[in-house]
Amino acid sequence: MNDQAERLREIALNVKQQIETEIRQELKVTRVIVVSSGKGGVGKSTLALNVSINLCIRGQRVLLMDADMGMANIDIMLGLVPKYNIQHVVQGKKGLKDIIIEGPEGLSIIPGSSGMVELANLSSSELQKIMVELGKLDGEYDYLVIDTGAGISRNVLTFLLAADDVVIITTPEPPALTDAYGVVKAIARESGGKNLYLVVNRVNDNAEGIMVADKFRLVCSKFLDLEMKILGHVVNDPLVGEGIRSQQAFSRMFPYNVAAKNINDIAGNLISANPRTGIPSEGSSGGIRKFFRKIVDLVK
Ligand SMILES: Nc1ncnc2c1ncn2[C@@H]1O[C@H](COP(=O)(O)OP(=O)(O)O)[C@@H](O)[C@H]1O
Ligand SMILES: [Mg+2]
Q1: Is 237 in the pocket of ligand 1 (CB under 6 A)?
Q2: Which of 170, 171, 225, 243 is most buried, with most CB under 10 Å away?
Q3: What is the pTM for the complete model shown?
């Protein structure tokens, strides 16, 4: 009986996801998800990449933008050597479509440029250029996943404030948790209508993942009056490093290990946590155009 109920729930969820995808395609709205953290090196790029690939495997059209202006490395993680990057778009030498490269499972990637002037420091005409280019892609993808740098630099903060969906990654270590809390606090005032998600990376086991996430959620609720949605956790696993060393996404190399299953759960939760189940209104719809319009407003 229980099994049957579970099966029915699964079918209902699949149908719901399919309908949402169709609505989005029909309305040409791309869901923008910004991935960030307080501390560096906690696994933002690893998660952004592997979750993006997982979404592709689920039939979603995903564009992954490497926006860590300090240490762009998504291309290196995949052993790709892009000819052009976002810098060429800013300089007006290339259109965005010219610089997009293809990764595994049909994932589209906007390669980043290390040492580039931070997006928040670009002139408004330069920003406008990126905005117009990105706006053209609205609706061509179901998801735009943006991998940012760590901390609360103006650049990262701008992304976080503009996005409707923000994923904060932390490890269970106190310095990472404290810094993650700092980021959440920095955006707390403006987080109305925003979805804030948490992923705890490099946990010892499920119990630790659940405990750390719960504690973090409680603190945010108590002191910031803010609802943090828990997306899941990823176990600490040497195979993740193995993937990085062989320049492949670990979840594709070792699809049956626990960390890959964790990624699958996170992607599943992200899809089902999609708040835009109905027809999005201008105020809440998101999409790439609205996201970048907000960025331009914030930078001004
Ligand atoms: N779940 C994990 N288990 C083991 N190692 C991990 C895990 N997640 C990330 N790492 C390692 O941590 C390092 C930093 O990850 P990365 O994704 O580049 O972090 P960030 O983008 O936040 O700077 C990488 O060398 C990666 O192999
Ligand atoms: Mg990174």
Answers
A1: yes
A2: 170
A3: 0.87
